[in-house]
Amino acid sequence: MRVKRSTWALPYLVFLILFVALPLVMIAVYAFRDAQTGAFTLANFTKFFSTPHDLNTFLYSIQVAFINTLMCLLIAYPAAWILSKSSFNRSKITVMLFILPMWINMLIRTLATVALFDFLKMPLGEGALYFGMVYNFLPFMIYPIYNSLEKLDNSYVEAAQDLGATPWKVFWKVTVPLSLPGVWSGVLMVFMPTISTFAIAEL
């Protein structure tokens, strides 16, 4: 007897509710509660938006996240495209080399980056901040884009070529649109964690 797809999806649904939806609901509830009385209040938001330091920090975090995401995308897409065109064994090994740093704690990777800058006698400024951000989050952008490009149906590319499209036009009109799901996944996986990453900036 065949098992319905909904039955297989049930554990994943429970996981999403418990570890994704429920924490978000709790954050929203606590945001509108008074820390002392537990009553509903807008004071938390009023205090946040009326404090220049907090507001500037928040806006700067968004700026850093946006620039980091853009830099990761500009580096990751060409890298993922080259990997998708490489031989199977070579591309898999290279992707694994990109993913390996993700298994190391981000704080350790950041400290190693700081040690590298110290060894090279380079100042730790905004440039070092973006270098550390890109180094830490680049694999999260490369992997989903690589997956999309690797699974791309090559018949669409061949059809465009048969119709006389130039390689550049094929890339922009066929390859890029079909790989957008991977691009958006990578953007979300880089942008959202970057906003809340304080360790790199502090170090």
Automatic annotation (TrEMBL):
Annotated ranges, domain ABC transmembrane type-1: 58-203
Highest taxon, organism lineage: Bacteria
Topology in the lipid bilayer: Multi-pass membrane protein
PANTHER family named in the record: INNER MEMBRANE ABC TRANSPORTER PERMEASE PROTEIN YDCU-RELATED (PTHR42929:SF1), INNER MEMBRANE ABC TRANSPORTER PERMEASE PROTEIN YDCU-RELATED-RELATED (PTHR42929)
Record-level GO cellular component terms: plasma membrane
GO biological process: transmembrane transport
Species per Swiss-Prot/TrEMBL record: Candidatus Cryptobacteroides merdipullorum
Transmembrane parts of this sequence: 12-32, 58-83, 95-116, 128-146, 178-201
Primary subcellular site in the record, as a coarse category: membrane
InterPro entries membership: MetI-like, MetI-like_sf
UniProt KW keywords: Cell membrane, Membrane, Transmembrane, Transmembrane helix, Transport
Upper classification of the organism: Bacteria, Pseudomonadati, Bacteroidota, Bacteroidia, Bacteroidales
UniProt family annotation: Belongs to the binding-protein-dependent transport system permease family. CysTW subfamily.
Compartments where found: Cell membrane
Protein name: ABC transporter permease
